[in-house]
Amino acid sequence: MTDDQLKLARRYLAQAKRVVIFTGAGISAESGVPTFRGSDATWKGMPAAVASSLGLLEQDLTTAWEWFDYRRTLLKAVSPNAAHVAVAQAESCFAEFLVVTQNVDGLHQKAGSKHIIELHGNIWRGRGLRTGKRYDLPETPLPTLPPRGDADEPIRPDVVLFGEMLPAGAFEEAELAAMRCDACLVIGTSGVVYPAALIPLAARDAGAAVIEVNPEATDLTPHVTLSLRGRAGDIVPQLFEA
Ligand code: APR
């Protein structure tokens, strides 16, 4: 990232009243959370995408939970980094400020962000298989797998699995905010997963300044106003410094 690019990005943000922050796994990379396409993670010989699939959940709920509880145990040990903290602290500086995240790790909440849409759910919650009722599941490792809710109802992870639709309303609410914003900051996403990746494009189409932060070029790079090369933990705090 050059000084000129930094100045320009700061000006876009300083002029903005309504801001959308769109994040992916890359914002949590410096907290020690592996990204999806940065690692060929396998678990018990299963690719992560299979372990996180609707197919496995329907076939074998207990094994699906073993995978998610393993991920929860990893996530329990990590903390928000400087990028999460800078985003949380910037929230009160704007008339409207919304975090739209693809991450299920809960690190934005842990950093203090208040207005968040979790497009892919949250690994610290469960959902009743029969009733759809949501349950907070902070404890890890979970005492029993699968965890059970009211009337002994089996609970599933409240995350969007491969092969599943996004939670009703979440995408629509995020898209509306993107179409209304003046600036959209895209942090740490490869932009290859849809419909999530439509959010920054909706902001661009509505005339907002779209600023990308990523050490590498992505599928979104040709479509953004400004693409800043570098790590989120280094760049994001500088963007909101002013
Ligand atoms: N700072 C900023 N960006 C980073 C950093 C960092 N320190 N480290 C890596 N990145 C970038 C990578 O260059 C990559 O472009 O983060 C991006 C991570 O991309 P993916 O692993 O594809 O993750 P994401 O875009 O969040 O994937 C979207 O796919 O697997 C599903 O549901 C899952 O939410 C996830 C979705």
Automatic annotation (TrEMBL):
<dbReference type="InterPro" id="IPR029035">
    <property type="entry name" value="DHS-like_NAD/FAD-binding_dom"/>
</dbReference>
<keyword id="KW-0520">NAD</keyword>
<dbReference type="InterPro" id="IPR026590">
    <property type="entry name" value="Ssirtuin_cat_dom"/>
</dbReference>
<feature type="domain" description="Deacetylase sirtuin-type">
    <location>
        <begin position="1"/>
        <end position="242"/>
    </location>
</feature>
<dbReference type="InterPro" id="IPR050134">
    <property type="entry name" value="NAD-dep_sirtuin_deacylases"/>
</dbReference>
<keyword id="KW-0808">Transferase</keyword>
<protein>
    <recommendedName>
        <fullName>protein acetyllysine N-acetyltransferase</fullName>
        <ecNumber>2.3.1.286</ecNumber>
    </recommendedName>
</protein>
<dbReference type="InterPro" id="IPR026591">
    <property type="entry name" value="Sirtuin_cat_small_dom_sf"/>
</dbReference>
<dbReference type="Pfam" id="PF02146">
    <property type="entry name" value="SIR2"/>
</dbReference>
<dbReference type="InterPro" id="IPR003000">
    <property type="entry name" value="Sirtuin"/>
</dbReference>
